User: Fold this.
Amino acid sequence: MQNNYTIKEVAQKLGITSSLLSQIENGKISPSLKSLESLLRFYCVNLSEFFRQVEQKDYIIIKAENAERIVAKSGSIITLLASKLENNVLETYSVELKPEISLQIKQINEKTNGERFIYIISGKLDAITEEKDCHQLFPGDSMNFKSHVACEVKNNSKTDVKFLISGFIPLF
Assistant:
């Protein structure tokens, strides 16, 4: 409805019947994993994002030992902080970036009103914006920018950089 699609249009684009899509939408049946993936791809929703949003509370607490962590081949660690509320528009990560490693921050369509926020905990981080401006950020420094602005963060130093990044989803 939000995108002015009819059930028939969506069903045709996904290669399923209107009847099946209607039953899924009305909670009468559960889609197969393949159908769910097709629906989520169509609506630009990440599969893990979809399942992460099952919590229906007004607040959430994530203990450090239960936080979801992604460890890259470089040894850099991205930790998802308490961002699992249903229909949240804000995600926050703690990032430990190893030397000579960079991350590209997801750029969102300019029509979507969202922001990104970076706060440096330790080390020196270079933030390269779409104008190819390089901003050096040190502990206690912060940066706020619109989510449609291209931004890459890079650790050009010899030591780890620790920072928080928060903003309109998805961030990476």
Notes: DSSP finds four helices and ten strands in the chain.
